[in-house]
Structure formats: structure tokens, C-alpha cells
Design a protein that fits this description.
- By secondary structure, the protein is of the alpha+beta class.
- It has a domain of 80 residues: OB fold (Dihydrolipoamide Acetyltransferase, E2P).
- It has a 5-stranded mixed barrel with strand order 1-2-3-5-4.
- β2 and β3 form a beta hairpin.
Length: 129
């Protein structure tokens, strides 16, 4: 501010300089804050067997008219029923009424169009009961 006093610069120009400097500081502070608040992605692990759940159930096609090709119905131990929509075809296990045991983990994909019954899941280690 001393150099501004010596040169007899107008009061409005002094205010303008102060506002520009303050604006620069605010802009830099906001940018630094945005860079620090970015969410960090979860660590990627190659071993997906930790998230696999084991279950028993049966294959059904009763929801085919609503748009669900194949549903696996699992009766859980706490009396709830879990409906799973296989993310990939079940191959030779896609038989209506077939009782199977399998491992699964939930996947984040949309249900097939019109299918509102069930949760999409990746089904692995399928065995007949």
C-alpha cells in the first residue's frame, strides 16, 4: 500500500487492486479445497472370493410374462425369500424347478425391462442338489 500512497493513485483504483487480490486468494482457496475433497476410489483387489455368498434355491420361469427370463428363488434361514436375477445365462442349469446350490455376489446393473422381481447377481459355482 505504501507504493500506492507515494504515487497519489485514486481511492477507487486502490479499492480495485485490493478486490482483485482478494478475489485471487478466494479463487485459489476454493480450487485447493475442491481438489482435496474428491472422493478416493475403493482399493481394487484381484481376489473376489471374499464377497461371494453361498446359497441354495431353485430356478423358476414363473415371472417370464413380466420380463424376467430366469429367477433363482432362495429361502434364507431368517424366513425371508431372496429373488436373484442371473447376470449371465445359467447354461444347463436353466431348467424350471431345478434345485441348485451356488455362490453369488450382487452386481450393479439394471434389471431387464419390465422385470421388477429380484436383484441382479453374478452366479458362480453352480451345482445340482
Amino acid at each position: 500500500m505504501l507504493f500506492l500512497k507515494k504515487r497519489n493513485v485514486s481511492k477507487k483504483l486502490k479499492q480495485l487492486v485490493i478486490y482483485v487480490i482478494a478475489g485471487c486468494f478466494i479463487f485459489i482457496a476454493c480450487k485447493a479445497k475442491q481438489a482435496n475433497t474428491a472422493p478416493t476410489p475403493p482399493p481394487i483387489t484381484d481376489d473376489s472370493s471374499n464377497s461371494l455368498l453361498k446359497a441354495k434355491g431353485f430356478v423358476t420361469h414363473q415371472y417370464k410374462p413380466q420380463g424376467c427370463e430366469t429367477i433363482i428363488v432362495c429361502a434364507l434361514t431368517n424366513a425371508d425369500t431372496l429373488f436373484l436375477i442371473p447376470a449371465t445365462p445359467l447354461q444347463e442349469f436353466d431348467v424350471d424347478g431345478l434345485k441348485i446350490s451356488f455362490s453369488y455376489h450382487m452386481v450393479r446393473i439394471h434389471n431387464p425391462k419390465g422385470c421388477h422381481k429380484g436383484i441382479p447377481a453374478q452366479i458362480t459355482n453352480i451345482k445340482k442338489q
